[in-house]
Design goal:
InterPro entries: Ac_CoA_lig, ACAS_N, AMP-bd_C, AMP-bd_C_sf, AMP-binding_CS, AMP-dep_synth/lig_dom, ANL_N_sf. It is an enzyme of class 6 (ligase). Pfam families: ACAS_N, AMP-binding, AMP-binding_C. With about 625 residues, the protein is of the alpha/beta class. The strands form eight sheets. It has an eight-stranded mixed β-sheet, sandwiched between helices. Helix 14 packs across helix 16. The two termini are about 45 Å apart. Bound molecules: adenosine-5'-monophosphate-propyl ester (PRX). Adenosine-5'-monophosphate-propyl ester (PRX) binds next to helix 12, strand 20, strand 24 and strand 25.
Length: about 625
């Protein structure tokens, strides 16, 4: 950290927007827009008008069967029609829709017209392989145009996509494929990462042995490695071969606003991942209009969101949001620090990126390498910067603001979740900013901070973050688990409000500061990992009898795993076993499960009913009083 940034740590200055930002902004009066959003149904209905509907809705919001809300009831539309096909009739036809760049400096551009043709051909292939409206198609792909094409091809014909982040591994894949009952999996030979190719297909080969519903594996030839086809049953096909000569016209499926668009799995406080289900109409309206508000998208923008498409940020703001607004979305495949920690800024300079959206963990990581990397590049094209995934600490905020934004670009710190589908709490570009605060709920959104009885807590005091009115891109249920949907999100706090699972506080200006999760979920470099999920992987190892996992603070990743392990007789937690357990975790969960520390213990604090009391482990770790221990086992 440089000297002057540390001074700014105690800085409580409010950062006003640069005049160039205000001049350009679609929405110039933040407070007035929030006022307008108070009539939330009218507000979102207005936004829905920017899209093509084959049939208009009869009702904006149906609340008759809470918490199963419906938006744009009986409206008929299609996501791919709105994100791609309708642009073909406009002057965006030959504009670049997807700009793919990788760490080797290779690029590929697809115009809206080209994307439209590729999506149609892929949709026809899916139909030929037996996919019909409502069927689930899984994707386990790196950041590559084929991933976007496949998602849009599903949406075109009404198939439900389930994208699995390519950093997850066999165990996670098996669970997700089986839960969604996917019929097809689309994968690739591998992905480029730090000068190497990481193979993906062998992971799929291993996983599908345990996935009876998978009928076909489609393989994208993405890298320059040899693909080992293990085609015993004729169920494995190359993507390129399949689309060769395929018709580039495909009929658009008329979808009900409430028809499912995708399932995306995320971690919760039990070992079983949650299949978050998003539908068509509300999601479309929500993601596009929030991107328009928060990043003030204009014609000519070059939008770059660095998130992987395998997470919600990638779904909403790499793929759907930007295409629905007819902008150019940059897809980058590679690490932020390879071949050197200036690679992102070199891309900003080379292509003239205007709006840039990333995670605090990436900023903290790049900050370590100093200012000299960004200083080498001309970053004047940048207008607005953003963050998502975890609290942005003031040091990182200031570094980003000064060194990347050159004190001209506002930093849009966006709070939202896989479940919310879209930004819910975030500033607009004209909003006065306080480093570390997500400011206020967006227009059309009502949120509060309450105690366990649903009563608002006094200003400055921490409490549970709740959302008080439905919003269009909200998830509709947990796939195969309605009960969990009701209990986890809608029953925790009285009053029929949505419980986010985060703690937060409000300051005297009504600005919201997110404090972190209130449940047993870790946030490792902006990735959600359930402690129970990690524990169950540990105990699946033959040397481990019992495991308890908590988060341990980490300067770069925010949080990493600290594991307390009871080993089976005859085992010692020596260097060899530590290595082996790390490998085991990586194999089952993938590199997202970052281990900070493992310790061997004889006993774990448990309730009399046998539940591990992680709260006590955490308190001990942080040198705090463990609080009420009356339920602790003798
Ligand atoms: O704890 C909050 C944190 O990330 C959680 C949601 O994780 P996920 O569903 O994986 O989605 C991440 C990307 C939308 C939240 O419950 N979180 C997300 N954004 C922020 C945040 N914490 C603080 N500030 C944010 N801007």
């Amino acid at each position: 950290m440089s000297k002057d940034t540390s001074v700014l740590l105690e800085e409580d200055r409010v950062f006003k927007p640069h005049y160039t930002i205000v001049e350009e902004a679609h929405i110039k009066n933040w407070e007035a827009e929030i006022e307008k959003g108070k009539d939330h149904e009218k507000y979102w209905e207005e936004k829905a008008r920017m899209f093509d509907w084959f049939k208009k809705w009869d009702m904006v919001l149906d609340e008759s069967n809470k918490p199963f809300y419906k938006w744009f009831v009986n409206g008929k539309t299609n996501m791919t029609h709105n994100a791609v096909d309708r642009w073909i009739e406009t002057d965006k036809r030959n504009q670049v829709a997807i700009l793919y760049v990788n760490e080797r400096g290779e690029e590929r551009k697809l115009t809206y017209y080209e994307l439209h043709r590729e999506v149609n051909r892929t949709a026809n292939v899916l139909k030929r392989l037996g996919i019909r409206k409502g069927d689930a198609v899984a994707m386990y792909l790196p950041m590559c145009p084929e991933l976007v094409i496949s998602m849009l091809a599903c949406a075109k014909i009404g198939a439900v996509h389930s994208v699995i982040y390519s950093g997850l591994s066999v165990g996670a894949l098996v669970e997700r494929l089986n839960d969604a009952k996917a019929k097809i999996i689309i994968t690739a030979d591998g992905t480029y990462r730090r000068g190497k190719v990481i193979k993906l297909k062998p992971i799929v080969d291993e996983a599908i042995l345990q996935c009876p519903t998978i009928e076909t594996t489609v393989v994208v030839k993405h890298t320059d490695i040899e693909i080992e086809m293990s085609d015993i049953s004729g169920r494995e096909m190359l993507f390129d071969k399949l689309i060769e000569g395929e018709d580039d016209e495909c009929e658009t499926e008329e979808m009900d606003a409430e028809d499912p668009l995708f399932i995306l799995y995320t971690s919760g406080s039990t070992g079983k991942p949650k299949g978050v289900l998003h539908t068509t109409g509300g999601y479309m309206v929500g993601v596009a209009s929030t991107l328009q508000m928060t990043f003030d998208i204009h014609n000519g923008d070059l939008w770059w969101c660095t998130a992987d498409i395998g997470w919600i940020t990638g779904h909403s703001y790499v793929v759907y949001g930007p295409l629905l607004l007819g902008t150019t979305t940059l897809l980058y495949e590679g690490a932020p620090d390879y071949p050197d920690p200036g690679v992102w800024w070199s891309i900003v300079e080379r292509y003239g990126v205007t709006k840039f959206y990333t995670a605090p963990t990436a900023i903290r990581h790049l900050m370590r390498f100093g200012d000299k990397h960004p200083r080498k590049y001309n970053l004047k094209s940048l207008k607005i910067l953003g963050t998502v995934g975890e609290p942005t600490n003031p040091e990182a905020w200031i570094w980003y603001y000064k060194n990347i934004g050159r004190e001209r670009c506002p930093i849009i710190d966006t709070w939202w979740q896989t479940e919310t589908g879209m930004h819910l709490i975030a500033p607009l570009p004209v909003t006065p900013l306080k480093p570390g605060s997500v400011t206020k709920p967006l227009p059309g959104i009502e949120a509060d901070i309450v105690d366990e009885n649903g009563k608002p807590v006094p200003l400055g005091k921490g409490g549970f973050l709740v959302i008080k009115k439905p919003w269009p891109a909200m998830f509709r249920t947990l796939f195969n688990d309605e009960e969990r949907y009701i209990n986890v999100y809608w029953k925790q706090i009285p009053g029929g409000v949505y419980t986010a699972g985060d703690m937060a506080r409000k300051d005297e200006d009504g600005y919201i500061w997110i404090q972190g999760r209130s449940d047993d979920v870790l946030n490792i470099a902006g990735h959600r990992i359930g402690t129970a999920e990690v524990e169950s992987v540990f105990v699946a190892h033959p040397a481990v009898a019992e495991a308890a996992v908590i988060g341990k603070e980490d300067p770069i990743k925010g949080e990493v795993i600290k594991a307390f392990l009871i080993l089976k007789k005859g085992h010692q937690l020596n260097a060899a076993l530590i290595e082996e357990l790390k490998r085991h975790l990586r194999h089952e969960l993938g590199p997202v499960a970052v281990i900070g520390e493992m310790v061997q213990v004889e006993q774990l604090p448990k309730t009399r009913s046998g539940k591990i009391m992680r709260r006590i482990l955490r308190a001990r770790e942080e040198g705090r009083d463990p609080g009420d221990t009356s339920t602790l086992e003798e």
